[in-house]
Design brief:
389 residues; alpha/beta; nine-stranded mixed sheet; three-stranded antiparallel sheet; 14 strands
């Protein structure tokens, strides 16, 4: 019989709303003013938006004035990934976009670049950006077309593997290019400092850290160089993103950013202990389980694994029946379960499939033990090799 209580182990897809965020949202609903209005009600809304902006900036080691609120990370990616930039009043042209082969679809699609102007950067079999491959691509870049732009995620959303962003940025800047960092899965899980990363731009998402859905931010290291606006209109967000700010969601985002930054290291050390308990139990229950990226640096909360002879979609359904919510890779394709481009990039057989367990601040030892019981049951029901379930 399936479990009657549900266990949520899909925090990388969406983190449940934090209690402090819920409280902040309830307060925000009482703010009736438009943050662009000059009257008392408008000023109150503006103060709340700017407080949230400071919290998001603190989360990534940036200045508040360098935070541009968007509808989410996908919009932020599409805003920054464009060949058209301004350096002050002068036009600046980006000739080619280079993206790692393990990027989220929001980046792999290339934003506003033509498909022919997007090049993939290889990763190693461990799922880490191949810096030698990046260096060669930058050396071969045709400077007559414009500057190179490189986009690399700080933490992979499927494997949890931490990428060598600072090292990549040094190569990019030596070649005169721009560095864009997807920090969505890193926020709240590792310390982030846009200066230390040497990133020109990075973006984050609210609902990945326990905030509301539908809000994110593009963060810049400076203000001299900015992408051509994606959304035009009333000139909000200093003209970089027009449209009345989603005040309520932004306030929730700010509350989440403040929460996850506080005691970040201690909280993630506790989560790492839970993951170790999980992975030790998985290896005992199924000696053939493959935990991807286990030999390199990962964030504390993520386990991406393959059970040979078990299709990813079959495994996801089986865990769901047992009351366990997890993902078959990235939750970004309207519920589709397909071959993992991350496993393909790592040189693995994509038909193996992968399941992702991701933990969060409220995950308990009892939940881990119940998940392990379900794992053992599902693993024991697999068909022999060559007869995929």
């Amino acid at each position: 019989m399936a479990n009657t209580s549900r266990i949520y182990l899909d925090w990388n897809a969406t983190a449940p709303l934090l209690p402090c965020v819920r409280d902040a949202l309830l307060h925000a609903f009482d703010l009736s003013g438009n943050p662009s209005s000059v009257h008392k009600e408008g000023r109150a809304a503006r103060m709340a938006v700017e407080s949230a902006r400071r919290n998001v900036a603190n989360l990534v080691g940036a200045q508040a004035s360098h935070v541009v609120f968007t509808s989410g990370a996908t919009e932020a990616a599409n805003l920054v990934l464009t060949p058209d930039y301004k350096m002050g009043r002068s036009a600046l042209r980006i000739g080619r976009l280079y993206v790692s082969a393990i990027e989220h679809p929001a980046v792999r699609e290339g934003g506003r670049f033509n498909k022919d102007d997007v090049t993939e950067i290889a990763v190693t079999s461990d799922g880490v950006l191949d810096l030698d491959a990046l260096k060669k691509l930058l050396e071969d870049h045709d400077k007559t077309t414009g500057l190179p732009m490189v986009a690399v995620m700080l933490v992979n959303n499927e494997t949890g593997i931490v990428q060598p962003v600072a090292e990549a940025a040094r190569l990019v800047h030596a070649a005169g290019g721009l560095m864009v960092v997807d920090a969505v899965q890193a926020a709240g899980r590792v310390p982030i400092d846009i200066q230390a990363l040497d990133a020109d731009f990075l973006f984050v998402s609210s609902h990945k850290i326990g905030g509301p859905k539908g809000v994110g931010a593009l963060v810049t290291r400076g203000e001299a160089m900015m992408p051509k606006a994606l959304i035009h209109g009333g000139g909000q967000e200093k003209g970089h993103r027009s449209g009345t700010e989603n005040t309520t969601a932004i306030i929730g985002f700010g509350a989440a950013a403040a929460f996850v930054l506080d005691e970040l290291v201690e909280r993630n050390a506790a989560i790492a202990t839970l993951r170790e308990r999980l992975e030790t139990g998985m290896r005992k229950a199924a000696v053939d389980v493959i935990i991807h990226g286990a030999e390199v640096e990962r964030v504390a909360n993520t386990t991406f694994f393959t059970l040979p002879s078990l299709k990813a979609e079959t495994g996801q359904i089986a865990f769901d029946i047992e009351g366990i919510a997890l993902s078959a890779g990235s939750a970004c394709s309207s519920g589709k379960v397909g071959e993992s481009h991350v496993l393909t990039a790592m040189g693995k057989d994509p038909k193996l499939g992968g399941l992702r367990i991701s933990l969060g601040v409220s995950t308990s030892e009892a939940e881990i033990d119940l998940a392990l019981a379900a794992f053992e049951k599902i693993a024991s029901r697999r068909k022999p090799a060559g007869q995929a379930a």
